[in-house]
Amino acid sequence: MKYNWNWGILWQTSIDGQNTWIMMLIHGLGWTLFAALCAGVIALLLGSVIGVVRTTDHKWLVRLGNAYVELFRNIPLLVQLFLWFFVIPELLPKAFGSAIKQMPPPWGSFVPAVIGLGLFTAARVAEQVRAGIQSLPRGQRMAGTALGLTQAQTYRHVLLPMAFRIIMPPLTSETMNLIKNTSVALTIGLVELTAAARSMQEFTFQVFEAFTAATVIYIIVNLVVVNLLRWLEKSVAVPGFIGPAAVGGGGH
Amino acid sequence: MGSFDFDVIARSLGYLFREGMVFTLTLTALAAVGGIVFGTLLAMMRLSSFKWLSLAATGYVNLMRSIPLLLVIFWFYFLVPYIGAWLTGAARPIHVGAFASSVITFTMFEAAYYSEIMRAGIQSIPRGQVWAGYALGLNYWQTMGTVVLPQAFRNMIPILLTQTIILFQDTSLVYVLSITDFLGAASKVAQRDSRLVEMYLFAALVYFIVSFGLSLLVKRLQQKIAIVR
Amino acid sequence: MAMIELKDVSKWYGSFQVLNGCTTSVEKGEVIVVCGPSGSGKSTLIKVVNALEPFQKGTIHVDGISVSDPKTDLPKLRSRVGMVFQHFELFPHLTITENLTLGQIKVLKRSEEEAKTRGLKYLDRVGLIEQKDKFPGQLSGGQQQRVAIARALSMDPICMLFDEPTSALDPEMINEVLDVMVGLAKEGMTMMVVTHEMGFARKVANRVIFMDRGQIVEDASKDDFFGKPRSERAQQFLAKILHN
Ligand SMILES: Nc1ncnc2c1ncn2[C@@H]1O[C@H](COP(=O)(O)OP(=O)(O)OP(=O)(O)O)[C@@H](O)[C@H]1O
Ligand SMILES: [Mg+2]
Question: Would the CB atoms of B196 and A90 count as touching at under 8 Å?
C-alpha cells in the first residue's frame, strides 16, 4: 500500500488561480492570528474586569461574575459560535439582524467568531485573574488600605501588578488555546489556517501534505508565541520575587 | 423577530437523545477510559529513565498540545484508514467507521492532556513511597501498580473528571465529520425544519446542564476529599 | 562470610561525591549504628546497600550476593532485606493489614490468608493488633513506625536497615519505637541503623560507624567509640549530641 507524496503541490497555483497553495495556507494563518488577536483583546479586558469583580466583597457582583464564568465555560465553544452566528441575529431587531447577516465575507463570519471566541476566552481569563489575586498574601490588600488607598487604587497599584505577573504562565497557555480554538470558526465559514488546509486537501487530494504543512505552521506559531510571552514574562519580572507555584489551568 | 416554534424540540427529543446524546456519551466514556490509560502510559514513559522513551512521549504530548483538535480530527479521519491498511496488510486504505474513527481520535488527543495530569499526580507521590515499594521487593510494575498509580489516580480524580467534562464538550467537534452526535442531531433537525434558533438554544441549554451539573459534582467530591485528608 | 559487606564504595551525584571509598562489613547477628552530621551520606550509605540508589565504584555484597551485578534479582534480594524509613512510608491508600500483606503476596507469593496470619502476628508483637483495619493516616507517628517495622518483619528478612527511624517522631514516641528495636537486636537480628540515639547505641550496638563528608571516618567497637574516639570530628560530634 502506498501514498503518492507530492510536496511540490505546495508551490502549485491554488483554486483561486493566482496564489500558490502555500500562500493560501499563510493567508489562512493571517486570519487565524488576526481573529485571535481581536478576541484576545476582548478576553483580556473583559476577563480582567470579571476576574477583579469576583474578588471584591460586593456580593451580587461576585455572583454575576461567577455566573458569567460558569455560563461560558459549560457550553461547547462550537455551540457558542453557532449561537453568535445563527441565533443572535434572529433575536435582534429585524433591521439590525439583517444588517449583520448581510456583512460581506469574511466579516460575516469574522465578527461573530471574534465575539464568540472573545467572550469564551474571557471566562477563562477571569478564572486566572481571580486565582492570581487570591494567591496574593492577604496582608497586601490590608497594607494598601492602611496606606489610605481606595479599593480601586489598591487593585490598580498593589494587587493587579503582582497578580498579572503571577498568572503570566497560565495566560501564555490560554493564548495558545485561543490561537488553536480559532480553528473552530471554520464551522461558521471563516477560512483560517485549518480551513485552508482542509480546502487544499479537498481540491488536491494531497491529504497529508496539506495537514503536515498546517501542523508545521501551528508548531512554529506555538514556539514563537511561547518564547515571545516568556520573554515578556522575564522582562516584567520583579527582582527577588519568586511567585507562588503557578496557578493551574486545565483544558485546551 | 420571527415566530418561534419550540414544539420542534418536543417532536425531535427521541432522535436528539436516543441517537445524538447516546453517541456523545458513549464517545466521551470510551475516549476518557482510553485516554486515561494511554495518558498514564505516556506519563510513565515521560518519567522513565530511558532517554529515548521519555523523549518520544514528550514529543507526542507536545505535538498534540500544539495543534487544534479540529486539525487532529481531520488528520485521524484520513490517517486511520491508512494505518489500518498498514496493520492488516491491505492494498488500499481500509474503511473505518465514523464512530471508530472518532473514538481513536479523541483517545489519542485527550491522552496528551490526561498524561500531563497523571504526570503531576505521579510526581506528587513522595520518593520514599517508591523506595518503600522497592525495599519490599516489588518490581517496577508492581510498585507502580500497587503503590504509586493508585495514590496518583486518587489524588487526581477531580482534575481528571474536570478534563472529562472538557472532553464531553469537545466531542461536539465531530460535527465537522457530519456525524450524528448530540449537536449533529440538533443541527440536522435545525436544517430540516429551518428551526436554527430553537434547536441551537436547546442544544446550548442541554450541554450547559450536563457540564454544569457534573462540575458541581466534582466540586462536592473535591470538598469531600479535602476533609478526608 | 559477612552478612553485609561494602568494599571501597564511592558514589557521585553529578560532580558531587556523596560516598568516598566506604569499606565496612556487618556480621550475622551484629548491630551497627551509623552516625554523623547532616549531609554526611548516612542515608545514601543505607540506600546503596539494597540498591535503592546506584553507586559508581566498589562492591557491595549482601549474604554473598553482589548488589550491583546486573544479573542479580534485585526484587528478590530486597525482599530479604527489611528497611525502615525516617518518614515511615506506609502506603496511605492501604489499610494496616494490607500494608503488612502487600509484599508477602506480590513478592513472596504467599496466600492472602498466610500473609495475613504472619502480618498480624508481627503487628501483635509491636502491640498494635487492634489497629489492623485502620488507615496509616489514622495512627500516630510512633504507631506508624511500629507498623513499618512489622511490615518489614513480615517478609522474614535476614537483616534490617533503619534510616533515622525516630528522628521524625515527637519525643514521647521515640521510646516505643526504640523498645521494639532493642527487642529485635536482643533476638539476634542483623541490623544496620542510622540514628543519633546514643542511648540505643550504648545499649545494643556492637560497633559504631562515624561518617563525615561521605567518608567513614571512624569504625570502632562501641566501647572504643564512646571511650575515646580517635578523630577530632567524631569527638566534636559526640560532644555536641551528648550535650543536647
Ligand atoms: N538526589 C540527590 N541529588 C543530589 N544530591 C543529593 C541527592 N540526594 C542527596 N544528595 C546530597 O548528598 C549528600 C548526602 O545525603 P544523605 O541524605 O545521604 O545525607 P544524610 O547523612 O542522610 O543527612 P541527614 O542527616 O540530613 O539525613 C547531601 O549533601 C545531599 O545534599
Ligand atoms: Mg538522612
Answer: yes
